[in-house]
Queue: 4 jobs
Job 1
Amino acid sequence: YNPILTHTVIGITKTTNRHESILESVGCSSSDRFRVMTLEEVKDKCRFQDVVFCAPPSGFDDYGAAVTSAATDLWSGPSEGGTGSFVFTSSGGVYGGVDGETVNETSETSDPESNPRTERLLKAERGTLQNGGCVLRLAGLYTLDRGAHNYWLTSGKEQIQGREDGILNLLHYDDAAGACVAALKATTKTTSGKIFLVSDGMPVTRKQVCESALKAKKYRGMTVPSFGGTGPKGKLYDGSVTNEALQWKPRYPSYDAFMASQQ
């Protein structure tokens, strides 16, 4: 454990390819307050009081092993007297159960043997929980420029595959970051070995996603495509227990409210 790094935010990447763009997006140069380093630079040299693992499964031969390694090798952990937290950002897409039902933190997950993506995420979740960390199952992430709405409205396709009343649970990227901070600030008694479900609590349909996006200046005047196909309807996320436990609420109360604010 390196006390010098206690109050420094370190962004850890596999290579240096995007270090300059990361620093630019954060709005600062590398300093004692924020730095970007590679995994090789910190591996076996530094251990941190608080760790957030938010890299996606792509790029890892064994995602579960990578997350477990971060929990055991990068985090100082409660076993060493640390007071911080290890947070792994998973996905609400792991839930199984009946189509159209409401799910929460304790709802059953899909059969991992039938879905390789679910299997990778659940393995990573197990590694996190077994080492005293916590799991944040996030709803679908979006910004003004990123998300299904951008593809659906700008692809030029007249019809999009999927039912128009299909349910989407959403969360702005800034609110996902806020939930991670809330988990880090909570007591280890609150978070250790726990699963949380994070969304804005306002599910929308595919059609509503497009209609709301038209309220933003960037998409105003565009045509809402038609949707075709039957497919699953989706599930409704209930993260009320998470909100209370982490003392967290989204900055953007709904996807519609965010889009309406983008003028």
Job 2
Amino acid sequence: WDLGGQEQFYALHILFLSRLGVYACFFDMRRLVASAQPDDRRSCLTFLRFWMQIVWGCTSGMGGRGGAPVLLCGTHKDEVPTVEDHEAISDLLYEEFGGTPVFNSSVQPHREGTVKSGSGLLWFFPIDNTKGQDDKDIVSVMKTIQECVQGEDYIRKKVPFTWMAVIDAFQASKEQTMELKDVEKLAADKGLGKDPVISLEDETQLMLDHLSGE
């Protein structure tokens, strides 16, 4: 999902942010370099704090787990190309957010970043959108996301094939939303509710809870 940054979408965050995901938070590096206007730097940091707190608030504490993984990605590396700037931005991010729960538990560092000493740790991924996968840092973002997903328990959790059939049928319907009674009807058509131990309504709710990361 691309959640965008527009304020009118904020009310929808709780519908889409779940523990079953990895989140990339993008910012413009030009706004955090030393030469940037102080008000612009503060605005950018405030926006980053907002997004990290939203992800943390919507994904932490579910099942006793921490929040979902978060990657901070700085764009416009073609205009902010120097290692010195990247290290300074990384230090700034740590100074601003290093004491927060989301930073300590969820933010994924760039362990193969380019630093003055060669290869080292940065607290964000400086990327050049114009290069695509020719930018090694974009490849590092993709690799880190894959590693995060592979390390999550939920990808190894077994679920009934009937649940997957319901998901496939919903996606095939091209509907954006569906009322609960229609979900239950779809679930019944795919074989839910046949177990005498659990009712159709309860199993449907169990399936929906699983999909929302609860």
Job 3
Amino acid sequence: MTKGALVLIAFLAMMAHCAQAFSPVLQQRRHQAATPASALLSSSGEDNTPVHHTAIKTRDIEMAIKFYSLLDFEVETKFLAGNVRAAWLQQKASGASGVRIELIEIPSSMLNEPDGRRRRAIDLVQRPELLGLNHYAIDVTNSMNRKNMKQLEQWVEHLNKKSKDTFGKTLRVAVEPFEQMIGQNLYQLAFIYDADGAIIELIYLQRKFTQKMISGWYV
């Protein structure tokens, strides 16, 4: 059995043990006054399944919370996933149905960082052959318009200054800003690393065209 499989089994066992320990507390809370889930259904009556959150593993959840505050995320709630610290973060202006991420702190006992080695996420910019979830994107168009910025490079520089002024940390840029046509829109795109090396795309809508564009993979 591989080392990765053993770590996964240990983590799942830890989650199951903690769930059993919390069972009496959960049973008690079920009998307390609460809003029925049926009352939270959309008033439109539509049977929709919106994305609830994207989960990101971190070696230091406090540092990760600080990093994502640069992108206007604030803590919605902190909780234990098993005996692992976790938190839901939501963007301040997005509202109850807005963008939410989940941070999950990996215990130092599972990180295996010998001789002071600092473990990071796999650099997916350098490993394009890997499959699965690659990144998520933050739309900075409104933020740039409010600041009267026309180039994404300006916003990246603004974010880097904010990071250095607030935390003394320099922003790590994975891919410098570039332009790309998608559909009828011209975008400026850039990619940065979060505190643990996960990739975040920054997207700015530069211009909309009225001419109808053909959707497809044409060279």
Job 4
Amino acid sequence: VACFREAVLEFFNAELGERLTTLGYEGLRKMFNYVGGGLIYVRETFKERLQILSSSWAIANSDGSAELEEDSMETIHSEKAAESNTQATQQTSPPEEAPKTTSLLGNQSVPTTFDEMFCFNAAVMGLENRDWMYEVLKSFDAIVTNVANSYRLQEECDVISLRMAKIPGEVQLFEFKPLMLASLRSLVPKGWDSHHESAWEWLWSNVEKVLQKEIGKLAPRGRLVSRYVGSMEAHTKEEVSKMIYAKFFALAPEGQNYFKQSS
């Protein structure tokens, strides 16, 4: 920032000469200091948040951590079983509840990924009937991994909006955040702190703002588009279709793989 500031000020001084007053020079200097300081703050702040999101998301969907937890649980169960066997040899009437409890714990299916934990918490909180949440969940991995790419983030939110528009019922976006945070706290128990809380709240607040703008607007737009397309003549529809597919395949060539026959 300092190098850029001094280079620009030197350029202004060389070009304007005496016309660049002391007041103007100091004004430009303060402006560059302010802008440069803001850029540095944004870079450092969002860099930390992006690192937190990336690392915690990897842990939340890591199979390795789940395997470690399973191994530790098996070790604990084996130690408890050994202790119960030792007590059984010393006592005339050993308790039957301990082995049964161990077997029940071993048969439980513990959620190990974010999707599984989210569905589990949704059922616990009585929100499992919110179908729109599962549409967000389908694209949530893409949202987290592309949070630094504003264009891709906007694209994912647009796709979610189109999917939610087809789902009947009211959409309350604020209901997603407590489920998201509860699931992440369960999957990232060791390193979770206030910085993680702030980073994930920041992510969802940005997504929520984009989605909120489109709620209730897509259905009327769809009717207008359907009415407009229905008023077209057959040859016009064919020409428009060719133009749409030509642009689509130019932007995303891999999309041709989803068509059974190429035309």
